[in-house]
Amino acid sequence: MIQENPQIDRFKQQLRDSLQRETLNARAITIAKHAHVYTCGDPGETVCFIESGQVKLQMLSPEGRECILAIHSAGDIFGELCLSGLGPRLETATAMTETTLKQIPCSRFFARLSRDSLFEGFVRYLAVRIADQQQMIANLVTVDSEQRLGKTLLQLAHKVGRKDPRNIRISKGSGDICIEHKISHEELSEMVGTTRPRISLFMQRFRNLGLVETSAEYFLIINEKKLTAYLAQVCGPRDHSFQNRPVLDSNASRVSVALNADWNQMGALASVAGRG
User: What number is the average pLDDT over the span 214-234?
Assistant: First the structure.
C-alpha cells in the first residue's frame, strides 16, 4: 500500500475546491444504488466529480470474471481516462450507494487545471496512482491473498473515510477505524483477486484475532495498529504458509488481474501542458 502523501492530499483538496467552482451551476445527476454511471464501451467524454455517495470501478475479463479497480467517494473524481483520448470507456462505473455527481467535459477539465495552475499537481497525483497500481500488481504475484486482503482493508479505510467524517472515525489511542458503508465479501474478492469463500475465511480469522469487528452502527471496525502489526509478522513471499495458521476450512482460489492504464492520461496531459 502506498504511504500517505501530504503533498498529494493538499493537491486533492485544491482540485476539489477548483471543481466545485467549475461545476457550481452545472446540473447534478443522481445515480441510484447499484445503477451504472457508465459501462465499458460507452463514449468517454466527461470526467465525473462525486458530490455525495460511493462509486466502484470494475473491469470484466473475457471469462466473465469481475475485478474492482477502485472505490471512490465524495470529493473524488473518476473517469479520467477520457483525458487520454483513447475513445470508449474501458471500465464500468457503478454506484454502491445513492450517489450525486456532476460531469465535466474534457475540454473544460483541462481549462480549469490550466486556469488554477493545477497541471503539475495533477501529474504528480497520477504518478502516485501509477505507483499504487504497480504495487497492487506486484502483490498479486509476490504476496498471498490473506496479506492482500489485509492491505486492501487498510487502504479502503483511509481512502473511503477521509473524504467524509460520517464514513470513518479514528478513536484516539485505540487505532480503530470505522467504515460505515457495506462492502460485500464478493466485492472484496474482486479487489483482492481471490474467491469469496476465501475472503470469508480470512475475515473470520481477522475477527478471531481481534483485528476487525462489526457493530450495529458500522459495517466494519478495523484495528489499524493490530492489523498492520499482523501483516508485518506474516509478510513474506507468496506461498502456502497461511495453511499453517488457524482456519475454519480451505477453499480453492482464483486470481483475476486487471491493469489500469494511467500512463495514457499522463501522456495526454504532457501534450496539453506543452501546448500551453
Answer: 85
Q: What is the pTM of this model?
A: 0.73
Q: What is the pLDDT, as a whole number, of residue 138?
A: 86
Mean pLDDT, the chain, rounded, equals 81
What is the residue type of 90? Answer: L
Q: Measured at the alpha carbon of residue 57, what is the angle toward residues 99 and 196, in degrees to the nearest 5?
A: 105
For residue 155, is it within any domain?
yes
CATH assignment of the domain containing 163 = 1.10.10.10
**Per residue in 54-75, pLDDT tens?**
999 999 888 878 889 989 998 9
Measure the CA–CA gap between 59 and 68, rounded to whole angstroms: 7
Q: Which domain holds residue 235?
A: 144-244
Is residue 265 located within the same domain as residue 165?
Answer: no
Statement: residue 163 has pLDDT above 80? no
Distances (CA, A) of 253 to 19, 190, 230, 245, 256: 42, 12, 22, 17, 10
For residue 74, tell me if it sits in a domain. yes
1: cell is 500500500
For 121-150, b/e burial (b = at least 16 CB within 10 A) is bbeebbebbbebbeebeebbeebbbbbbbb
